[in-house]
Amino acid sequence: MTQKYLIYGLCIDSIIELPELVPAAGTPDVIVHYGHVDNKPELEEDDFESLWVTEEQVCIRYQGIGSFLVQHGDEVIVDLDEGAPESVVRLALLGPAISVILHQRGFLVLHGSAISINGRAIAIMGNSGDGKSSLAASLQGKGYDLIADDLSVIDVDDQENIRLRPGYPQLKLWPDLLEAVGDDAAKLEQVSPNIDKRAKRLQAGFVDQPVPLHRIYVLGVADSVAVEPLSGQEAFMQLVYNSHNVFLLDDTGTSQSHFFQCAQLIKHVPVCRLQRPWSLDHMPDVIRAIEEDVTTSEPTINT
Questions:
Q1: Where in the chain is the domain with CATH 3.40.50.300?
Q2: For the structural domain made of 108-296, what CATH number should be given?
Q3: Three-state secondary structure along 101-130?
Q4: For 89-114, what is the mean pLDDT?
Q5: How far apart (Å, rounded) are the C-alpha atoms in residues 1 and 130?
Q6: Could you give the CA distance from residue 220 to residue 256 in angstroms, rounded to a whole number?
Q7: Which residues on adjacent β-strands are paired with residue 146?
Q8: pTM confidence score
Q9: Which domain of life is it from (predicted)?
Q10: pLDDT digit string (tens) for 273-296?
């Protein structure tokens, strides 16, 4: 039996239970179902992941988990290996698979978390381990609303109303941060048997509608907290570097449209580097810097 869920504004009809997501009704945009995947990508003995890409299809195979054939922006065929951990299957679906679906549907997908500050969306970009989720969790704990964790999905079509689409009400956090904000990590589910991050599902403090995008921050490390506007060239390069599906561009024939989206985005939304010391002790100063930048500073478009 399938169930319908909402994620990034899409209704998903899934044979796999996805308790992280918000239940939905209506006509599904995407179908997730089991099936046999022919022509699976080859996996070497030491490989965890392999894939092949065409203009309309992406097939991702994970060692000990299975294959996910994502096609046409509206279907995911799941061919699981025996004994695949349920939590890891959900991670693959809600991360790489849904990211490919969104790319196939023409959205700009960035590797970053997103928060709504008084109705103004900010995206926080950076590499894995840079502290995107930690900063998003701290802002959410301050009373601001989560838009998305890990993937920032942006509507660029209406250049006068560029918006961030809401993901789902969950943060994936390391135990030390959870303890720092007063949560008991031991009571929360691990996101994967091999990853000690925990899934913090939110009962409140989540936005369920698109929010106008006001700022994009690229995380950096420095001795003190500072917000520094980027030049147009550097802002463009950061968007490309932090694009979640940049590896798909050549084989899907979407390089031109993707680069155009990035170029249009930096014309309308400031991209800044957020410098801060690498310590949770400085998080209050980081939050104050963001609040001041978002609420009192005039937008400075990258030139």
A1: 108-296
A2: 3.40.50.300
A3: HHHHCCCEEEEEEEEEECCEEEEEECCCCC
A4: 97
A5: 39
A6: 29
A7: 115, 206
A8: 0.93
A9: Bacteria
A10: 999 998 888 999 999 999 999 987
- For residue range 211-267, list pLDDT tens digits in order: 999 999 999 999 999 999 999 999 999 999 999 999 999 999 999 999 999 999 999
Q: Burial, 207: exposed, middle or buried (Cβ in 10 Å; 0-12, 13-18, 19+)?
A: buried
